[in-house]
Design goal:
It is a single chain. By secondary structure, the protein is mainly β. Helix content is 0%, strand content 30%. The chain has a twelve-stranded mixed β-sheet with strand order 3-6-9-12-15-18-21-24-27-30-32-33, with no helix packed on it. The chain has a ten-stranded parallel β-sheet with strand order 2-5-8-11-14-17-20-23-26-29, with no helix packed on it. The chain has an eight-stranded parallel β-sheet with strand order 1-4-7-10-13-16-19-22, with no helix packed on it. β32 and β33 form a beta hairpin.
Length: 252
């Protein structure tokens, strides 16, 4: 006898299976052929496409918590979380209500995707990545292990972010009332790349095909097709022509 709790209003399509000690809430829909592991929690109203794999211990549709002094978490009614078809969601992932995940997205173990986040098709979110609220991640992006994407950021298509990159959105570092007027995350234009352990300061833009070197601290905008390196980062040289996005032979 299964120890899982499935609300009578939840709709699981043909060929979908679930493990032990799961909870699936009201009005949840799960498409055909999906596989849900053990100890998975799917909160009310979540919409999951076909052939989605959800590994053990994951939570989908979590409502945000608001601390008394939170600067960016807002009291709001959020739409249901939506997971596109053919996604893979790893172990102990937390995906909040108000997220929209595209098709064939991989979200690896121990990652967190906050409310009001959109992730485009075919993107890879690596192990331990945190994507804060009010972010937009494009198609065919790759965020590697332990990347931190701060609130109010936008990454366009084909962006690559190496392990342990940190981004920020508060130039006032948590002090003064003035800071509330100026929160701004980072913008990475199509094909932008960020090397391992780089730090991107609030409001900075990395241009199309721009490249931030490993360990750099970006305190100003990066022009299109330029490499910036150092602390603070300065323009080093042009991105090699053979590395440009339009030389890769990709269809999109």
């Amino acid at each position: 006898m299964s120890q899982s709790v499935i609300d009578k209003t939840a709709r699981l399509a043909d060929g979908t299976s679930y493990g032990e000690f799961c909870f699936i809430g009201r009005n949840v829909t799960v498409g055909r052929g999906s596989v849900i592991g053990h100890h998975v929690i799917i909160h009310d109203d979540v919409q999951i496409g076909d052939n989605v794999r959800i590994d053990d211990g994951t939570v989908i549709g979590k409502r945000p918590m608001k601390a008394a002094n939170s600067a960016v978490t807002k009291e709001q009614e959020l739409p249901p979380a939506v997971i596109g078809s053919d996604c893979i969601i790893g172990t102990d992932v937390v995906i909040y209500r108000g997220c929209e995940i595209g098709r064939k997205v991989l979200i690896a173990d121990l990652s967190t995707v906050r409310e009001n986040v959109a992730i485009g098709d075919f993107t890879i979110v690596g192990r331990g990545v945190a994507i804060e609220n009010f972010c937009k991640i494009g198609k065919y992006c790759k965020l590697e292990t332990n990347v931190y994407i701060t609130a109010y950021s936008e990454l366009e298509d084909r962006v690559f972010v190496a392990p342990c990159v940190a981004t920020s959105n508060d130039n006032y570092i948590g002090r003064t009332e003035e800071r509330f007027k100026h929160f701004k995350g980072v913008t990475v234009k199509k094909g932008g790349r960020i090397g391992v352990n780089a730090t991107i300061l609030p409001g900075k833009t990395i241009g199309r095909d721009g490249l931030i070197a490993a360990g750099a601290v970006l305190t100003g905008d990066c022009p299109d097709k330029k490499i910036m390196a150092g602390v603070p980062a300065k323009v080093l040289r042009d991105v090699p022509p053979e590395q440009l996005l339009d030389k890769q032979g990709w269809k999109e």
